[in-house]
Design a protein that fits this description.
The protein has 285 residues and is an alpha/beta fold. The protein is built from twelve helices and ten strands. The protein has helices at 19-24, 46-59, 79-87, 102-112, 124-128, 130-134, 146-153, 165-178, 193-206, 219-225, 230-248, 263-284, and strands at 10-15, 32-36, 66-70, 93-96, 117-121, 139-144, 182-184, 210-213, 254-256, 259-261. The mean pLDDT is 96.
């Protein structure tokens, strides 16, 4: 699948140290998996987790799901070894935690060759430097770390996420400017379906491509929230048809449901249909 156009509705964290979780992930309807060598793995288990993950990825069976390995930071005892090992595992990308400067991306690139890099954006300094980080030529995606960001900001949790909005917005602008995907942070109350749905809808409205998840029970809600709805697909088709008809009649704009349709609306409509088609192909692969 085209890596520049694939969907990222659901991006599930899986502990790299848990063989049963690694096995179950092969059957889950997620768009991407983050195989976690960092926060989800105890200090004493980190070298063994690296070997467990390498074996699981060598066995394969993850189908079209994007395989992202989150390593430990390069300033830790395990980061460099994680990076070299991950580059040889056949993963689709390596996720670097707590990225604050572009030179951190460069340091990882020096260790892993041309393997694509994603960045965890989770600190105030990272937010402020988001544009330069996103511009690194090997950087191909952002993952928001909203729990760490909230901790550093000393905020209180709010359903509207107002305290972290400035950081989310800076990273969204940087990602969109460089044309790379960006996925929203996790929703911690994994049994709260209404809360998750509301936060997914908020993230989708902001422009995020998907949601990072901490539990398989969250997958269906994220997949639905970040996929075009039947109503959006129908509107996209009607907008394209109306605009093409207007063009055939020598007109530069069309009207659908009482609203003007111009070139920019048609571009969005075509992107909506392309995304729906990619999701359908991913789900039948």
């Amino acid at each position: 699948m085209d890596q520049t156009a694939r969907p990222f509705r659901s991006v599930l964290y899986i502990p790299a140290s848990k063989p049963r979780a690694l096995e179950k992930a092969r059957t889950l309807p997620v768009d991407a998996i983050i195989f976690d060598l960092e926060d989800a793995v105890a200090v004493e288990e980190k070298p063994a987790a690296r070997a467990t993950l390498a074996e699981a990825l060598a066995q394969g069976g993850y189908g079209p799901r994007m395989k992202i390995v989150r390593i430990n930071g390069l300033d830790t005892d395990w980061g460099a070894d994680d990076a070299r090992a991950a580059a040889g595992m056949g993963c689709d990308a390596i996720l670097l935690p707590k990225v604050e400067r572009a030179d951190q991306v460069l340091a990882l690139a020096d260790l892993i060759g041309d393997t694509p890099i994603w960045a965890m954006m989770e600190t105030p300094r990272g937010m402020l430097n988001a544009a330069q980080i996103a511009a690194h030529p090997q950087l191909q995606g952002f993952v928001m770390g909203t729990n760490d960001l909230a901790k550093d900001l000393n905020t209180r949790a709010r359903p509207d996420r107002l305290p972290v909005m400035a950081g989310l917005g800076l990273c969204l602008l940087a990602a969109k400017a460089e044309g790379i995907p960006i996925v929203d942070g996790v929703y911690n109350a994994f049994k709260d379906e209404d809360g998750l749905r509301a936060e997914c809808d908020q993230g989708r409205d902001m422009g995020f491509d998907g949601k990072t998840l901490i539990h398989p029970a969250q997958v269906a809600i994220a997949n639905a929230a970040f996929a075009p709805s039947e109503a959006e697909i129908d509107l996209a088709r009607r907008q394209i048809a109306a605009f093409e008809q207007a063009g055939a009649e020598g007109q530069g704009v069309a009207v659908v449901d009482g609203r003007i349709v111009e070139n920019l609306h048609v571009a969005t409509a075509r992107a909506t249909l392309a995304k729906a088609d990619m999701i359908a192909r991913l789900e039948t692969a």
